[in-house]
Design goal:
Belongs to the NAGSA dehydrogenase family. Type 1 subfamily. Pathway: Amino-acid biosynthesis; L-arginine biosynthesis; N(2)-acetyl-L-ornithine from L-glutamate: step 3/4. The protein has about 325 residues and is α/β, with parallel strands linked by helices. The protein folds into two domains: about 140 residues, Rossmann fold (3-Layer(aba) Sandwich); about 160 residues, 2-Layer Sandwich (Dihydrodipicolinate Reductase, domain 2), CATH 3.30.360.10. Helices cover about 25% and strands about 25% of the residues. It contains eight helices and 15 strands. The strands form three sheets. The chain has a seven-stranded mixed sheet, with helices on one face. Helix 1 packs across helix 8 and helix 3 packs across helix 8.
Length: about 325
């Protein structure tokens, strides 16, 4: 049984992680650390846990835990690790962007592996330290990795992805409160989003020429999920593209290629990524859909935990979507 500690459990990703671990047959929550909610019940931050757990937030960190999940704001994980020394056997999964890029992966004697199972499966199994991918980065990489591996992304790639309000975190802002977000849509950080760095590193890992990535992130008027579209020049047939994707994801536990066009509701509340291919002339359109809080964050973190401790990838992640 894995004894897991959660650092920063009051946000959206922390809440999802608590729910997943409470139902995981091979893991138990040892503590949930919070500097602002210590002594309060977990249900004070996550009311849906009322009657499910009586656990309290703690101001103590068990440095002997088997696994630590870091659910802190970007830039705070490195600060936390500098001030806490964990046991030699303790493994760490960080859900921030502190260690995702190659230049940041080596930190204080720890070597973080980029935690996208569809790309780094064997390395994740052997690693003690995982940098969990970003949500946009997960959806977009899964749409493009099969093409990158075959050297078929040598032309410009145009990407549009819309995310729900939970992608901005639990703390309200001018663009997340209901009266602004409802019946509204907008773009932000055009062509400069921070996830482009990790996307580019992964696509370039096959030593193939990669064209320029033009990424336009969008805010949607819904709570959770990411729907991404990416298109680029492709000279082959749709059938050839389909075979290429099927071969690449043949062993993937959670990435599926569908014949029918996809939509968000079929993946929300699951750890699935659904992909759909469409050909128009010499242009290939790839559509990708994930739940940003699960496959884009906490679900993928549990998937990585399973790999690190030798359990089947799907353990504790048999979630069901609803189309209603």
């Amino acid at each position: 049984m894995i004894k897991a500690g959660i650092i920063g459990g009051s946000g959206y990703t922390g809440g999802e992680l608590i729910r997943l671990l409470l139902g995981h047959p091979q893991a138990e929550i040892d503590f949930v650390f919070s500097t602002t909610r210590a002594g309060k019940s977990l249900s004070s931050a996550h009311p849906d846990l009322t009657g499910i757990t009586d656990m309290l937030f703690s101001d103590k960190v068990n440095t002997e835990a088997d696994l630590i999940f870091l659910c802190l704001g970007h830039g705070n994980s490195s600060e936390f690790l500098r001030s806490h020394d964990f046991a030699e056997h303790t493994k760490i999964i960080d859900l921030s962007n502190d260690f995702r890029l190659a230049d940041d992966a080596s930190f204080e004697g720890m070597q973080f592996v980029y935690g996208l199972p569809e790309l780094k499966l064997d390395a994740i199994r052997e690693s003690k330290f995982i940098a969990n991918p970003g949500c946009f980065a997960t959806a977009i990489q899964l749409a493009l990795l099969p093409l990158a591996k075959q050297g078929l992304l040598n032309k410009d790639v145009h990407i549009n992805a819309v995310t729900g309000s939970t992608g901005a975190g639990v703390r309200p802002s001018a663009t997340t409160h209901f009266s602004w977000r409802n019946n509204n849509a907008s773009w932000y950080k055009p062509f400069t989003h921070q996830h482009l760095g990790e996307i580019s590193e992964s696509l370039n890992s096959f030593d193939q020429q990669i064209g320029e990535l033009f990424f336009l992130p969008m805010r949607g008027n819904f709570s959770r999920g990411i729907l991404a579209t990416a298109y680029t020049q492709f000279e082959g047939t749709l059938e050839e593209a389909g075979q290429l994707f099927s071969d690449f994801y043949e062993e993937a536990a959670f990435t599926q290629i569908t014949e029918d066009p996809i939509y968000l509701k079929q993946v929300v509340n699951t750890n699935q990524c659904h992909l759909h291919l469409h050909k128009h002339g010499n242009t290939l359109l790839v559509t990708s859909a994930i739940d940003n809080l699960l496959k884009g964050a906490s679900g993928q973190a549990v998937q990585n935990m399973n790999l690190m401790f030798g359990y089947p990838e799907k353990t504790g992640l048999e979630l069901k979507a609803s189309i209603f």
